[in-house]
Amino acid sequence: MKLLESYDEVCELVRGRQPGEIITVLGPTATGKTRLAVRIARDFNGEIVSADSRQVYRAMDIGTGKDLSDYMVDGQQIPYHLIDVAEPGTEFNVAQYQQAAYHAIDDIVARGREVVLCGGSGMYVESLLGGYRLAPIEPDAELRARLEAMSDEELTAMLASYHPLHNHTDTCERERLLKAVEIECYYERHPEWKQQVRRIPSVIFGTTADRDVVRARITRRLRQRLDEGMVEEVDALIRQGVSTRQLMKYGLEYKFLTMYLLGEISKEDMFEKLNTAIHQFSKRQMTWFRRMERQGFVIHWIDISQL
After folding, report:
1. Superfamily of domain 3-132+196-211+284-306
2. Angle, to 10 degrees, between the axis of helix 211-227 and the axis of helix 267-294?
3. CA distances (Å), 63 to each of 66, 276, 279, in order?
4. What CATH class has 214-281?
5. Does residue 7 contact residue 299 with C-beta atoms inside 8 Å?
6. Would you list the domain boundaries of the chain?
7. What is the pTM of this model?
8. What are the residues facing 208 on neighbouring strands?
9. 68-72, 159-163, 227-231 — which is least confidently predicted?
10. pLDDT confidence of residue 140
11. Which of 128, 237, 239, 284 is the most exposed place for a label (fewest CB within 10 A)?
């Protein structure tokens, strides 16, 4: 993987991009995506469009790593979109995200500013850059009951029958596995929804670092967020009436912290299991971005130490 050697090279590529291309910054967790995106937005009169599947939810700040202070640079507030747009306890899927992102992008462009798409949710990024037509899938109780009676192995085999499993993002948790199979079943009945539409052209930057550096950053950030009140944040959501089952669907932090608050695991086990799971998630994110490259997306990688 050839790496850019400086931020100046990033700027050259931004200036040299084709007319109509937006700017995208992606990368695994804890590799400084937001910092780079905000810097580009500041220098090129841009606004951030978040591509994070969990930061759309209000009152879920620490666990999703919003770090909103990062959007303030030298006293200048960098505008951001698609953060805090849904209530906790609800579901905001990729089809809803895609439509909201199209609206945000059109608004930014209409005001003569640059779009900087930033996030680590590969499916959200690809839904825009690949222009995939996504259906707002309605719940099918009969199908769900039939799928829930199947084992994880049977579901995985069923999912693999629809398309090659390039990574294990959809098979690492049963709920995600069920949802992935539901989507494919829907597409099988409604193939028109899988047609490509409105691809957003972009110059793409990826943030990366030595594996040991990323691991250290992940662990340090997890300890910091626990110190900042991440447990208390999840406890407050439960007290507000968000179901524990729904919270566990919101990703690793909310899954393991909810288990801890329910007394299912100790504080020490919570930290160790969560820390390990985030490291594994980071690898899966990179696998997704590598797959994007194999599909033809050109990603210009830069080591965070150069920023």
Report:
1. P-loop containing nucleotide triphosphate hydrolases (3.40.50.300)
2. 140
3. 8, 16, 15
4. mainly alpha
5. no
6. 3-132+196-211+284-306, 141-194, 214-281
7. 0.84
8. 303
9. 159-163
10. 84
11. 239
